[in-house]
Amino acid sequence: MISLPSTPSPSSKTSASTAASFPVSSTLRHLISPPQLLSMWTPVGPFGGYHPMLSGLLPHLGFCRRIDPSASGCGDVLVHAFGAHAMSFFNTANVVTAVRNFPDYSGTAVGIMKGFLGLSGAILIQVYETMFNNKPTSYLLLLALLPAINPLLLMWFVRIYDTNEPEEKKLLDDVSCVALLVAAYLMSVIILDHLFDFRFLVRIFTFVVLLLLLSSPLFIVLRAGERDSPPSMNRSLISEEQRDFQEEDKYNLNLLQAMCSVEFWILFFAMACGMGSGLATVNNLGQIGESLGYSSFEANTLVSLWSIWNFLGRFGAGCVSDHFLHVKGWARPLFMVLTLATMSIGHSVIASGLPGALYAGSILVGVCYGSQWSLMPTIASEIFGVRHMGTIFNTITVASPVGSYIFSVRVVGYIYDLEASGSGCKGRHCFMLSFLIMASATLLGTLAALALFYRTKRFYSQVILGRLLHSL
């Protein structure tokens, strides 16, 4: 989900980020739908959300007129929320399928899925600036049709395979290299574009290169399929034993059983602190830069690069935690402790208001915020099992909009209004107290994650590592 390059209203921006992180309906659908059918619900949101904007129906929504005839922004909020909510359907299907298909390297698989989701904002900005610059109506048509058509074409490939491929680690490594290359290329294009203001032909060239990079994972998979031999009887036996082992595993909890555990609420609280404060930061990044005297060019560069830092966190946390789990046997919640502690430092750096602090702080917060989106689903699948993973991790994801509301509205917004004069607020005092509060809250989240680490340390050493050894 990406908002239009024109500046949206604060209420519509909040509704979009909240709806995207509040996957209630996709959670309920996952209870009764396989991944393919779950993906079929994705087209409803973009078309239903952006079509009213495209066709000029916003002022005519009777629901809004009944609430308040003078509230022109009501329809904007409604359709932004409806459009953004669709992302959770395909996201749930992809994440659950990735964990089931790559049980030994679930962190890396989820990191790749979530990482490309984090890059999607920067990619769509390149689409807008190359093909739809100053054409918001055409861009709205793209946002209404492309996310609706794409799942219908690709949902047949989103399925669970009960096999154990010997070269799946190499395949994931190859796709990981492509993901890093795409992120590095996008970061270079964004910085150079802000410095030199690309001409149209240069934009076309950079966009074509981007499309080639995005399509390269398909060639990697096709090449791997041609190279692989038919599965042997030995691999089938291993797959059958692993499947029986997982089905008989007593650690596959349903949602109600998971909610009755202390680990569920510790994870929920830690995510409310980490994801909520991260969302509050990105939603106010431009305004923070303005209050600290950054130029519009510098503030726009910070916002544009957020997708890159978000990707690095999502992708890096999954790969690094997988590596240390296999090599050192370190429990994955330890990396949640480290990233939340680093995020607390990032908030403190931004609160200092020192020259260049917003650059360094936004990098730390962006990377660590993205890390939570790959660590949390993977940890949830390991602690509570994969059988009901979609419902459990989506329920924990509700912590993100809850925390975002608390920090964005009750902390940042409230304190900014107290500090601001009639013409706005200038100086480090505008956001200093807000970010010190978020740094303290994230530190509490770190302590909660530390408690989760100690509570699950024996479980990881006995059960999770046992599963990894069993699959060899």
From TrEMBL:
Segments traversing the membrane: 109-128, 140-159, 171-192, 204-225, 264-282, 333-351, 357-380, 392-416, 431-454
MF-aspect GO terms: translation initiation factor activity
A Pfam family annotated for this UniProt entry: NFD4_C
Sequence ranges assigned to domain Nodulin-like in this UniProt record: 79-221
Residue span, NFD4 C-terminal domain: 260-461
Entry superkingdom: Eukaryota
Membrane-topology descriptor: Multi-pass membrane protein
Keywords of this entry: Membrane, Transmembrane, Transmembrane helix
One GO cellular component term noted in the UniProt record for this chain: membrane
Primary location recorded for the protein, binned into one broad class: membrane
Subcellular location: Membrane
Keyword Membrane included in the entry's annotation: yes
Protein name: Transcription initiation factor IIB-2-like
Protein species of origin: Hibiscus syriacus
